[in-house]
């Protein structure tokens, strides 16, 4: 398999453990020439020198961004790394291009995808936590953590990660996949949905499968997880056994749901960078 363990998947920290050391607000900033992880919409801006992609060393003056209005993330190959967000209409100079995190073609290596995803999450958290949810006061970072405290009422708030269950349903040699309208024609993937109040992740998986396909499942087993920065999710992966019911797609959310086998596969699957593909490869196609 391309990724033997779910922990090795892009966007999970193991993918950058050899080149990145995390920092937090208030931590000492290492000396050295800075790196910049530049995010625009759901894309990472990289420099392309003869297909050798890298983070940026300098920022165009037209962006109006400097170290002082960037977020320090830690050290990248021993030198300081800052996260920067620019508008989607910002001009990209020659050799720069914006690569979507969910691009169909996988051009960026795992380390660039992962540091880009981390930057996306930190920048998103910073943008939605500038005002206190209780009193509207200004929030300031707590030294040594990404949490914030209100300067007016002292309410504390910490980064929110949104859990999502994603599940493969098996019936003998068959496995159930769905297709959403916004996906490319012929592409199928797994049922997935966000955790609701008062649910365990396993209960979330059961509910989402029932709502989207009309099918009942049993023997729900956890198999792995993945950070998913769209903008700040945790995908908890499961496999489950078919327990009954006819496939009746929820037309409000999905375009199709059907059973496949290794002999009758869909036109395309999710990209390798996703836990959806990892689960399909490991528990449907390889039957491990």
TrEMBL record:
GO terms for cellular component: cytosol. Its EC number is 3.6.1.22. One of its GO terms (molecular function) is NADH pyrophosphatase activity. Its cofactor is Mg(2+); Zn(2+). One of its GO terms (biological process) is NADP+ catabolic process. Transmembrane segments: none annotated. It is an enzyme of class 3 (hydrolase). Pfam families: NUDIX, NUDIX-like, Zn_ribbon_NUD. Residues 159-283 form the Nudix hydrolase domain. InterPro entries: NAD-cap_RNA_hydrolase_NudC, NADH_PPase-like_N, NudC-like_C, NUDIX_hydrolase-like_dom_sf, NUDIX_hydrolase_CS, NUDIX_hydrolase_dom, Znr_NADH_PPase. The keyword Acetylation does not apply. The keyword Manganese does not apply. It catalyses: a 5'-end NAD(+)-phospho-ribonucleoside in mRNA + H2O = a 5'-end phospho-adenosine-phospho-ribonucleoside in mRNA + beta-nicotinamide D-ribonucleotide + 2 H(+). Keywords: Hydrolase, Magnesium, Metal-binding, NAD. Belongs to the Nudix hydrolase family. NudC subfamily. This is NAD(+) diphosphatase. It comes from Geoanaerobacter pelophilus.
